[in-house]
């Protein structure tokens, strides 16, 4: 709707207030899908800051509270939003999931799905750099595996950081089959760059 062009004219605090007024963080998921399709039609595109605020308002609470696989509506909305605003979504969502204590199995699966099906290559690199900023855990190994499954060309500094992280944290994962698979994948995918 033409009225949504207001999103391009809001300051960050106004946009947060508008999201709160519209109760976007708790709106029904079918509406969420429709709202995200409207966002894609906006011209000009949202600024990075506005997209990050919307990513937080639309998805953060829903994703952090997942205790079972996300509904098809939530996945459709995420995929839609991701198709144009994957960088701000990554910055907001992944950072929050990484800071959450505990296993977060559903959040991990969701991150893997985003990596495998939605994210642009530059956003995959952003996600990888975010994961490498925190201590590795069993919960994060499948996410790294999903990144490697994309077989993206990584910048040398990011590949070096990945290899260094795996070397430094290897003793903590001495009995982990997932870690062994991850190291094997790194050696297979990037064999020409890893000595």
Automatic annotation (TrEMBL):
<feature type="domain" description="Fanconi Anaemia group E protein C-terminal">
    <location>
        <begin position="3"/>
        <end position="194"/>
    </location>
</feature>
<dbReference type="InterPro" id="IPR021025">
    <property type="entry name" value="Fanconi_anaemia_gr_E_prot_C"/>
</dbReference>
<dbReference type="GO" id="GO:0036297">
    <property type="term" value="P:interstrand cross-link repair"/>
</dbReference>
<dbReference type="GO" id="GO:0043240">
    <property type="term" value="C:Fanconi anaemia nuclear complex"/>
</dbReference>
<dbReference type="InterPro" id="IPR039685">
    <property type="entry name" value="FANCE"/>
</dbReference>
<protein>
    <submittedName>
        <fullName>FANCE protein</fullName>
    </submittedName>
</protein>
<dbReference type="Pfam" id="PF11510">
    <property type="entry name" value="FA_FANCE"/>
</dbReference>
């Amino acid at each position: 709707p033409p009225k949504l062009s207001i999103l391009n004219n809001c300051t960050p605090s106004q946009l947060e207030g508008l999201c709160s007024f519209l109760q976007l963080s708790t709106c029904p998921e079918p509406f969420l899908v429709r709202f995200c399709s409207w966002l894609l039609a906006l011209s000009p595109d949202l600024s990075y800051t506005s997209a990050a605020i919307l990513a937080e308002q639309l998805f953060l609470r829903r994703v952090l509270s997942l205790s079972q696989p996300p509904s098809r509506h939530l996945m459709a909305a995420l995929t839609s939003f991701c198709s144009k605003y994957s960088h701000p979504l990554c910055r907001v969502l992944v950072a929050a999931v990484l800071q959450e204590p505990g296993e977060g199995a559903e959040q991990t699966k969701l991150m893997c799905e985003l990596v495998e099906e939605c994210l642009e290559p530059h956003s995959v690199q952003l996600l990888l750099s975010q994961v490498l900023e925190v201590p590795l855990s069993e919960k994060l190994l499948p996410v790294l595996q999903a990144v490697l499954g994309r077989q993206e060309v990584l910048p040398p500094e990011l590949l070096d950081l990945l290899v260094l992280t795996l070397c430094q944290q290897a003793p903590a994962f001495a009995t982990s089959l997932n870690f062994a698979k991850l190291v094997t994948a790194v050696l297979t995918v990037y064999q020409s760059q890893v000595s």
